């Protein structure tokens, strides 16, 4: 018997973890996940977009429009920041972060300050926006590389049916 050849790449695996993490988000319009990996391909942090610990997500707004304090924007922590804050207590210098959505300028600051050296993203849907331009400018100046994930697969399907194990 020969080894199996239809396995996923490291990029697909870690982006899959980021996408799985995104499913924890209670945001009705945008679910983003992030996964931080060290140079030995070990996961050292994961996060998703949501309210800070102790803030009841039934008591805060989830709207995208309206008066600033009546929207989600002043309250939600982005996936990248949560992954950094949720790390296993190690120095993140030299790590990579996989994120479903290209990071905003605020998360980019945290990524740079944490010492993360590569950003791998799935979507850059806000490309051309001022926050994306600011993010790329900071990443370039800080010598943090970024790239869109390249995948040979369109989707991963998970099953909780024990017969499939």
SSE topology:
Elements: H1 10-22, E1 33-37, E2 43-48, H2 79-85, E3 96-101, H3 105-114, E4 118-123, H4 130-141, E5 145-148
Parallel strand pairs: 3-4, 4-5
Antiparallel strand pairs: 1-2, 1-3
Helix pairs in contact: 3-4
List the main descriptive attributes of the protein structure presented here:
165 residues, alpha/beta, 4 helices, 5 strands
Multimer state: single chain
Instruction: Count the E strands.
Output: 5
Structural class: alpha/beta
Number of helices, counting only DSSP H or I runs of 4 residues or more: 4
Q: Could you report the average pLDDT, rounded to the nearest whole number? A: 96
Give the CA-CA distance, first to last residue.
19 Å
Beta-strand percent range: 15-25%
Give the topology string: H per helix, E per strand. HEEHEHEHE
Strands in their spatial order, largest beta sheet = 2-1-3-4-5
Uncertain runs are none
Largest sheet: 5 strands, mixed
Rg (CA only): 17 Å
Q: Could you estimate the helical fraction of the residues in percent?
A: 25-40%
Backbone shape: globular
């Amino acid at each position: 018997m020969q080894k199996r050849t239809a396995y996923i790449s490291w990029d697909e695996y870690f982006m899959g973890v980021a996408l799985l993490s995104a499913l924890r988000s209670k945001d009705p319009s945008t679910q983003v996940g992030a996964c931080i990996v060290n140079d030995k391909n070990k996961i050292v942090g994961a996060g998703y977009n949501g309210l800070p610990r102790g803030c009841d997500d039934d008591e805060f707004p989830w709207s995208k429009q309206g008066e600033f304090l009546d929207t989600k924007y002043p309250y939600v922590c982005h996936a990248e920041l949560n992954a950094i804050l949720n790390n296993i207590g190690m120095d993140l210098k030299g790590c990579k972060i996989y994120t479903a959505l290209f990071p905003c300028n605020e998360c980019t600051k945290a990524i740079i300050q944490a010492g993360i050296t590569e950003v791998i993203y799935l979507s850059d849907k806000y490309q051309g926006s001022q926050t994306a331009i600011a993010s790329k400018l900071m990443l370039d100046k800080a010598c943090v590389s970024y790239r869109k994930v390249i995948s040979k697969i369109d989707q991963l399907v998970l099953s909780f049916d024990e017969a499939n194990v």
